Amino acid sequence: MRPLLVTALAAALLASTTTADATGRAPGPEVSKVADTQLDPGAVYFESYNGLVNNNAFQKNGLLTYKGYQYAVWYTGDRTAVIGRRALGRADWQTVRLPHKLTTDDSHNVISMGISRVDGRLHLNMDSHSSGFFYVKSVAGLLDDPAGHPWNSAQFGAVQTTLDGLALTSQFTYPQFVATPEGRLQLSYRVGVSGNGRNALAEYDGTKWTALGEWSASTGTYTSEHGSSTARNMYLHGIDYGTDGRLHAFYTWREQNNAVMCDAGGLTNHDTGYVYSTDRGRTWRNTAGTVVGTTGGADKVTVNDTGTVVDPLNPDHSLMNQESQATDSAGRPHAVISYVPGRFGQCTTDYVADRTTNGRAFHLFKNAAGAWKKTEIPVALGSSQRTHLAFDKYDNAYAVMPYGRIVAASSASGYTDWKTLFDGSGLNAFGEVVVDDTRLAQDGVLSFMYQRKSSGTTPSALRVIDFRLPG
């Protein structure tokens, strides 16, 4: 082709793109697979709580991206904790084996990562379920200059059972790291046990860890049409800062007493709640802006606080805990929740079977007018497990469902035009996947970690797949 013709075609393409952008119409959601790489040919495999220890959708973060590198954590076939990294765009992963092995066959004993931007360290919390935890941090500056640091065990400190000497609780579960707008690192976790626990926060300022304290309470009385319960725990769907610096938390309550349910085979989870903080998690407000809890104070967020329930639901529909949340470019909060809708009956008797047969996911969000909206995602779960929510740069929503299926809806439609973009064909994924929440904003790629189905305790391949999104 002649150079002048090539130039003319390029100019025409640029002109058409510029014209389309000038109309103000943002592109709708779409995905294009760009890579599928292997982390481990034989990662540890056992089923527990209907899940795998390397692939819980609520992990924050099992996969993350920072300054041109992506990082992953998992347990390999001999149960050793491993950290991997790769430069974005590369297929080869470098790995470091840590001096720690998974202590028990419990899928809740995940590994979570966090980054303290104030000193460029990578932090890991791992291997706990209502027990003690194990903590590791890297040398300072490792993530600020990854190419300048060899990827070996010398870059990481000793495995600790405290946060640099700060002991939190002997009943620790569900670590979730979140970076503050200033670059400090916060750690969210549960104190206590399922049905009787409290959420708490700790904070790292680049020098030391500080316990900020508990902010939710297990006390109060909840009464359904079947009975009452006087103890519970708040299960977070996540904890995330928006563009305006607000810290958002969606959640559901799990009651201790099965008397609140129509049948003991269901889940005592009920109601989707929402609170936010404007002061880095020190106080918590309901949807009206009223303070309903103080971290480390006497007044904590409780099941009886008014203005906190944004989607009411009784305990008879097997509402899933720890589903997913995200914020859009305007800082508005969104969540995915899932349960068995009433059209399939008003009493679930086997939450795994009922959710697999009749479970549906819903997108719940606060619109620009401040009203809460909910739309059913018209794709059957086909699983008892969780869905993960993410956004592209145009605020189109992507729900990554069990088995690695991707369904999406456009911002332009008000999130009403959900459709399947990728059906998971060829992945042979077990169920839940771990989405890299940090990568989308950096290079427009939706990346998630999945593990292939196996049986018994036979290890299986752990992989990361990448999809290019609009923008």
Give the tags.
471 residues, Tat pathway signal sequence domain protein, four-stranded antiparallel beta sheet, 32 strands, Methylamine Dehydrogenase, Chain H, signal, disordered N terminus, mainly beta, Sialidase_sf, single chain, five-stranded antiparallel beta sheet
Description:
It is a single chain. The chain is mainly beta. Helix content is 7%, strand content 39%. The protein has 3 helices and 32 strands. Strands 15, 16, 17, 18 and 21 form a 5-stranded antiparallel sheet that branches. It has a 4-stranded antiparallel sheet with strand order 1-32-31-30. It has a 4-stranded antiparallel sheet with strand order 2-3-4-5, with no helix packed on it. Residues 1-21 have low confidence and may be disordered. This is Tat pathway signal sequence domain protein. InterPro entries: Sialidase_sf (IPR036278). Keywords: Signal.
